[in-house]
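Exercise 7.
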Amino acid sequence: MARLLAARKKIVAIGDFLARNPALRAVGRRTHLLSLMDGGMRFSAAATVAPWRALVLGAPREEHDAIDRAFPEFRKLFVAKRVKTGRIYDELIRHPGTAILAWGVAAGPQLAKLQSRGISGHPVLYLDRGPIDIVNETEHLHGYVLDWTGLYCNSRRTSDLETILNGFPFIDHPELLAATTTMIRTRFSKSSLSGPVVVVCQHRSDPPALFAGATHPEAEALIEMASDENPRSEIVLVQVCPSGRAQAKHREELAKLGNVASPDAVPTLLTGASRVYVASANLGFHALLRGVPVTTLGGPFYAGWGLTDDRRPVPRRQRSLGLSALTAGVLVLYGRFLRSGSLISAVSGVDAEPAK
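Solution. The predicted structure, written as tokens, is:
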């Protein structure tokens, strides 16, 4: 337990961005999958790699291997949704100090049942896919995050990301800003700003839509605002909806409201967009990285730092940041990335240039 608390202090306070996460020193180290257990519990990383023990709740089966590689500091026991609360609780009682790693919103029901029984001796951490993947012609970096405080997409409460962005001394780390500036330039195509106005329409099941507290979450309100403020511009809608049965229905509903871009066209669309309107979707951060002006109606993680036109303020966010500082906080200090199964920094492989 003391080791877990010490790790939290290091992660949240940061101190030196290079020393923030010792686990990143294990780049390229492969963890070992053990056999499936009966009853829906599955062990993962070998004890020789992972000093701390944790139960993982809510993670989809297809993410298990990536989670194992992205968070090698934990010896993980993956718990299926079908496992009864009593059995999970018994597992925690047998192993005092075991951490609980809750995967996004999916872990909510299991976590709530455990918390109702009392799990104060077991730290709860939040795992999720990162705000973005870094994708271009030559590589695909898959993003993940670990947070001791809450979900980064939940503007109703603070998170480790918000703590970093509010307090990290970016000015004292010019090498970090320089590397991030180069990473933005080389890995994200700059928008020509000559194309249409893009309206990002989120389905109500999209996690950022659930938590960001948008004042106008419906597509109609976003489209009306974009049209009123840009009367001479073409308006193109972009759908954000988790895959599944709701996706097709959501797209049909949007098609009645305007021109809906195909999913494959979205990256190209952002390289020419003149402006983006969004309630709270992570796609707004993609737009910022490409130099596109962004208007937000909710409280996404990238809003409130002086870079976006925010129609709903987040009073906890007390600082103005440049794009390089915001991106360094989100992708370097907070995020973790996997490339071909190995941990890698978001700025790995770029030659730093002076930050602007």
